[in-house]
Prior knowledge:
Blueprint: H1 12-33, H2 35-46, H3 50-78, H4 80-99, H5 104-118, H6 121-132, H7 136-167, H8 177-191, H9 205-228, H10 232-254, H11 268-298, H12 303-309, H13 311-327, H14 333-351, H15 359-387, H16 394-429, H17 438-444, H18 448-456, H19 460-499
Helix pairs in contact: 1-6, 1-7, 1-8, 2-7, 3-4, 3-5, 3-6, 3-9, 3-16, 4-5, 4-6, 4-8, 6-7, 6-16, 7-13, 7-15, 9-10, 9-16, 11-15, 11-16, 11-19, 13-15, 14-15, 14-19, 15-16, 16-19, 17-18, 18-19
Amino acid sequence: xxxxxxxxxxxxxxxxxxxxxxxxxxxxxxxxxxxxxxxxxxxxxxxxxxxxxxxxxxxxxxxxxxxxxxxxxxxxxxxxxxxxxxxxxxxxxxxxxxxxxxxxxxxxxxxxxxxxxxxxxxxxxxxxxxxxxxxxxxxxxxxxxxxxxxxxxxxxxxxxxxxxxxxxxxxxxxxxxxxxxxxxxxxxxxxxxxxxxxxxxxxxxxxxxxxxxxxxxxxxxxxxxxxxxxxxxxxxxxxxxxxxxxxxxxxxxxxxxxxxxxxxxxxxxxxxxxxxxxxxxxxxxxxxxxxxxxxxxxxxxxxxxxxxxxxxxxxxxxxxxxxxxxxxxxxxxxxxxxxxxxxxxxxxxxxxxxxxxxxxxxxxxxxxxxxxxxxxxxxxxxxxxxxxxxxxxxxxxxxxxxxxxxxxxxxxxxxxxxxxxxxxxxxxxxxxxxxxxxxxxxxxxxxxxxxxxxxxxxxxxxxxxxxxxxxxxxxxxxxxxxxxxxxxxxxxxxxxxxxxxxxxxxxxxxxxxxxxxxxx
Length: 520
């Protein structure tokens, strides 16, 4: 099946195809979050060591982030639909193997395979959208739906996972995606066009290895810093990753058929959108981290209750993702992005005022406001990156977009997570609580979760006083981190207003020009 003619409006087949490719994107997002609920259950069944448990949780995201660039470029070479279907088949098989893993080592290996297979989904689906929707306005709408599908997956994943774990074994959470992948394999060949760059050369394996190792090392270092603070090993990993990344970039400049096209970064709209996307994910992932902790550890909600109270933010994000493409018909994309980031900044500012008296209501409102604002930035930044890339390099541009999202998210968790830990420990270090042994107070400085466990073991009012001190310390850290996030959102809004001000509105009628109009 051929892609529609340049500038032509999409038919019903393309819109149905969009619905089909949105489903694996939901699963992609769900698999990043659903395992967290199953950790206690699989721990009891497989008895992993602490190191194995870390790898079970992290390896999916590591392999996914490290494989994105290679998979995006591979799709340009062998065909984006073909790569998507291969990835869907591998994802389904790996999901079944993960569900029935009989040891921690087997689960780590199958989670790694899931990450590699998952890395084919986002770049392939986004680059297919680039070829299915050649009218600029329709492409913006399609990308908005594509972005919303990730939000929906992240929102319903914990709810579906929690329901499954109520009635089935821990491996059931991995089987959620199998029917979706079977559906994609059945309908994909009929509904999705094939597209590949007929002029592309061979895949440079050394470049692929460099991109994988560079991203893996940096993401690993950032995650370890977020979990345990600064240390020699995570800092060394980041330095090594950056060094390999520099070697990778230099190699791309010398190759006739590079893994990524460096000329993309010379397009101002592309580079600005990439920076804004990274900053938006920086505050989004960091924000989601400390909001989830506040709901459970300060307000005392269960994991399922916290998930339910997070649904409004997911709805706001999905709505914003579909509203943003309509706004750019009236207002230039750069100003819509800047406006969305200002809304996100207002949401974070409101979040910084949350207290334990009216904390739940105010937090849910603030969470919804910031999610609505960030959805504008995510949707239009992706649209700009894909729309300004030549069609034959859409896979590579999509992979760069996804890699910036993963990198920004990991950086946000590491930096903002470290801020939370530092402020919490400082506040707890200054606490003096009558009746609490020094050893217990020292243990409670680790984090609020440890403080809760330590407080539960203390008799009488001493335990309650220790837990209250921990919650107060975390609330201080929460307020500061929300304020920092608001400042970053404001800075990103200024960047968008300045760097993207010349990007024109997409045409509202079919035309021969399928790119966003760059004025000036």
